Amino acid sequence: MIFADMHTHTNFSTDSDAEPEAMLESAYARGLTTYCFTDHMDYLFPMDNTQFLFDPKKYWATMSKLKEQWKGRIDVKIGVELGLRDEPDVVEPVTAFYEKLLKDYPFDFVIGSTHCLEHIDPYYPGYWDNFTGTKGMLRYFEAELWNMEHYSGFHVCGHLDYLMRYVPKGKRVHIRKMQDAVDAILQTLLRRDIGLEINTGSLRRNYPETNPSAAIAARYYELGGRLITIASDAHYAEHVAADFDRAEAMLREIGFTEYATFSGGVPKFHKF
Ligand SMILES: [Zn+2]
Ligand SMILES: [Zn+2]
User: Fold this and answer.
1) Percent of the chain scoring above 90 in pLDDT
2) How many folded domains does the chain comprise?
3) For the chain, which terminus, N or C, has the lower number of CB atoms within 10 Å?
């Protein structure tokens, strides 16, 4: 069984109203022994009127207090999900902002995610106006590869093929045309000792696979990858550890026998 949820949000994230305490209560009720808060920091988020930033001082104080209060029941980890960017005009300020954040706060765990590219959040349909399904995904993987190669300080690649959830109806993606792009990302993760997150958030969004898909997880395993974290990406208390049984079955079938948690940036492996 999987006892750790390594990617979750609270009301420190712009897109969640969840009280941190309520998330821990849900985790406890579901039998988890390790729980990691990873609220959003997406510096220079490109969409108007939206900012994905929190006050790190307040975050650190709140989560540290909960860590103390929950000792003996749940091992609380303080993490963050960074939105990485490859657009040349924002790379420098984004890099500087994250470097300072990680220097000032010794997070247990840092997720490197690719949310935005081409100065847009491709969750919005506008991104797809310029691309076919296949081209839109390839451009996303290109940005993600750049991010995985150039940024430092993060421990896993968040939801590697997450944009698959948001390919508009009617746009087709030729999975076989993605293989080289995905391989390049996986090789980079292995070379740089960056882990692969298995994110179950997609399963709640009428998407039939985890992010990344079983095929990508199997390819990572085939290339020798063993450093995986399991993540619900919950933004609501009821989604903590959601569909972990499905993720575990999929991973066992591939051959995985262990998953990782992180403390102070150091991985620890646990048997399923
Ligand atoms: Zn994310
Ligand atoms: Zn997230």
Assistant:
1) 94
2) 1
3) N
Distance from residue 97's CA to the centre of ligand 1 (Å): 18
pLDDT of 124 higher than 90: no
Residue 49 structural domain: 4-271
Query: Is the distance from CB of 49 to CB of 65 less than 8 angstroms?
Result: no
How distant is the alpha carbon of residue 10 from its chain centre? 15
pLDDT value, residue 49: 77
Cα-to-centroid distance, 157 and ligand 1 (Å): 10
- List residues, by chain if needed, whose CB lies under 5 Å from ion ligand 2: 81, 233
216 CA from centroid of ligand 1 (Å): 18
d(CA 113, ligand 1 centre) in Å: 6
Q: Is 191 left (phi over 0), alpha (psi -120 to 50) or beta?
A: alpha
CATH number of 42's domain: 3.20.20.140
